[in-house]
Amino acid sequence: MTESLVRNDELRNDAQPNDALASEGQPNDALVIDGVALGSRLIMGTGGAPSLAGLGAALTASGTELTTVAMRRYAVDGAGSADTNLFALLLENNIKVLPNTAGCFTAREAVMTAELAREALETDWVKLEVIADEHTLLPDALELVEATEQLVHRGFKVFAYTNDDPVLALRLEQLGVAAVMPLGAPIGTGLGILNPHNIELIVARAGIPVVLDAGIGTASDAALAMELGCDAVLLATAVTRAQNPVLMAQAFKHAVIGGRLAAQGGRIPKRQHALASSAMEGRPDV
Amino acid sequence: MARTVQDFSTIGTPSSDVTGADAASADVAVIGGGIVGLGIAWEAQRAGRTVTVIDPAPASGATFAAAGMLAPVSELHYQEEALLELTLASAARWPEFMASLPAEVETGFNTSPTLVLGADPADRKALADLRDVQLRHGLDVVPLTIREARAAEPMVGPHISCAYRVEADHQVDPRAMAGALRTQLLRSAVEQGRTEPEQTLVPQTAAGLLHAEAGNTHSAVTGVQLADGTEIHAREVIVANGLGAPQLAGLPEGLVLPVRAVHGDILRLRVPAHLRPLTTATIRGLVRGLPVYIVPRGDGTVVIGASSREDGSAGVSAGGVHQLLRDAQVLMPAVAELELLEMTARARPGTPDNAPLLGRVAGLDGRDIAGLIIATGFFRHGVLLMPIAALVARQLLGNITDLAWQPFRPDRFSPTLKPADSIGQHSDPTDNQHSKENP
To answer: Is the ipTM of this complex over 0.85?
Structure first.
């Protein structure tokens, strides 16, 4: 593990009030992955976008600084402008590209796709997706571990898309991934976070950034992910297939900020009995 | 949207100073012989102009692949309401356009309805939500029970979640239509005294535009230079060669034509005699969030399409074919019994806002450059939008500008080119989306 990775448990455990967080800029709360500071904790995907201009508007509205692109679905073509080329569009909006291996079913395919991405995009970051089958699109744990080992060995900074399995998440961290990305629910389902307890457990034990990836349906799902202690949220479908992607992107921008603040603000315990917000003690006896 | 039509006086009565006998000239030169280029050429010829269509392989691109659905209602997408106005206008114009062709010409045009099906409960919800928007725009989308849908089309499988009937969505056979238009162009040319087919259909590649002042790309366009150096002189040049448009030499400096290749895989299958008709209506489905359609043809074949890929691969995608057959079988299980005749992949010319680049181009002084009309970037809607593109081009040839279509101007992505007449211009045709000059 590289030292540049911020241990997020310091933010998680001592809920220090941070005035800077109150502002939207959050200057002291950057997400740092592989030494790169990201001002936004919302990572976007591009799949399902209705139009290139619509995608650009949604990404801008989301405030994202990192966006993942399926290398199997978009040809990397140096030609073209932001009007014709997705990669030029991201560049123009100062959004860093996180290539992903979506559509790969074997470790071999994933490794080759990652190599292709590294060559074409000159980045050693890769979001590793190794899918078991097209019905669930769930990660294949064995192929994922195999591909992770190979990619880390080849010098990639691996963002591992994984099941919401605390044991597997820890194994991936031990293998040297830069971030673990457990799913909230299967890709594209919009079912939200089906096992919040497992996400909490993954976060509690992780020494690297945890990014909730997949299954997000609406803003409250993203806020919950942040409240559970995740360092960032990645989503695509919830914005790109929304009726108004720009509005939804804004909603997620605020939800992620809100969830992050709530996680650090320190929530009250849940009680069975009511407790008046103005306590009885100390009231003048009239 | 404001609709102002200026000066109908010149329509249909061009003052041709180009003689019909001159092989290398015409009133109108059209670069690109796809469905849009051919349609514009026919419309111009009908208005009395001589035309030359330049294409080394006419109707071999997106037109060759297209299923030919004329479906403004079921193809409505969120955030594309402005485009809807154009697609509805074009759909309304199809019968009139067909009436311009001799009745015996085979084009596959028919007005059978479209049946929209959803596969799973989420598809049902997605189609119901879309119907709310369709109804808000006054479109007619009739919900059917699944029993009613299957009574109308018994080959529809039992495992669907919802069904709608759209009476207004029709179809045409783009290959037959393109063939019919080429035949008509040649026939009418003979009546104009242009007896050589090469005067009308030039099987060569256009290299660039000719200008009144050599080296000044903002001067009037006066013709087309072919790849072999030959010049074809014309009073007006129409650029309708899809993805090839930005590569033409001599386009006005500063003009950005942002078209990108969005490939699609599409299948043609023969229905065995014992299964005919597989369907009489066009079937459009949403299967676990993915669109698929089955379009019946009069000759007992069906067209199943279409994937949408930006992977840059021009060949047929095995994954794309698999997805189409898998999803089509959910809607109609008997698809598995069909004979697979053809798998085709072609590129659609996609634009940033999914709307076409249609109209004249502003010069640096803000006035439209004479002699040049752009008609490209029709993306998924080339066949549907052909008649309106032809009408817009005919009006522009007659110096008529319909302000309703100004949002589709081809210079809307060109920051340095601003039309002087600003009414309704440079607004993005799709709401809430942003083009570069209109953030």
So the answer is: no
